[in-house]
Amino acid sequence: MNSSDKAIAPCEPATDSHSSGKTHFGFSEVDARDKSGLVGEVFSSVADNYDTMNDLMSMGIHRLWKRHFALISGVRPGDRVLDLAGGTGDVADLLYDRVGSNGQIVLSDINPEMLANGHDRMLDEGRVDRISCCLADAQYLPFADNSFNAVTMAFGLRNVTDKQMALDSIYRVLKPGGRALVLEFSKLTLPAIQPVYDWYSFSVLPRLGRWIANDEDAYRYLAESIRQHPDQDTLAAMFAQSGFVQTRFRNLSFGLVAIHSGVKA
Question: What is the pTM (predicted TM-score) of this model?
Fold first, then answer.
């Protein structure tokens, strides 16, 4: 066990109480209780090349999306923030200065390899004074009710087995007046570019995955998972179902991605 493993021990044992039912894993149908393990295999495989692949796949635009995400987060000095599916720490890094010296960020991910990369990055940048790491499942957050001023999640919700359960869990750990923000791929609002997007997603991305990360199947799954994710209006309704008020979304890049937000009443 290396130093990263010790620093990111699970906040509590991971659980998955899905006893029956089917769900999607990309375009495949699988037992719901098996999905988290399958997703885990994908991200364990790509963890070491994740940032490089993100830059290549989006031509660096993902960094602009994340900067905008942090800019409109409303995070203020002294806030306690939970960054879910935080992986290699891009969003936590952007929020570091916003929480100030009295704030705290919990960088969380369900995948130990991804989180180890994030933890090592925070160590290298000298940011562990405000950022701690927690291995946890978004569906079963191991935190007390009313614990955080904000919960952020970038490009992770589509990989969760039960998205509504995750939103319910996020709502529970937020303080009254706290804000949830989800940055995720969504539905294009410019249908004319859909054929090009589909060609890029299903022909180019898997090849990049094979050449750079030595895993074509992982990046085919990631492309498929985007198509299976709820569209803007559906996800906004799911926020409302969990109890959020002031629910809204903002499209970026013609709806290629969207930022959904809601406030705990």
Answer: 0.90
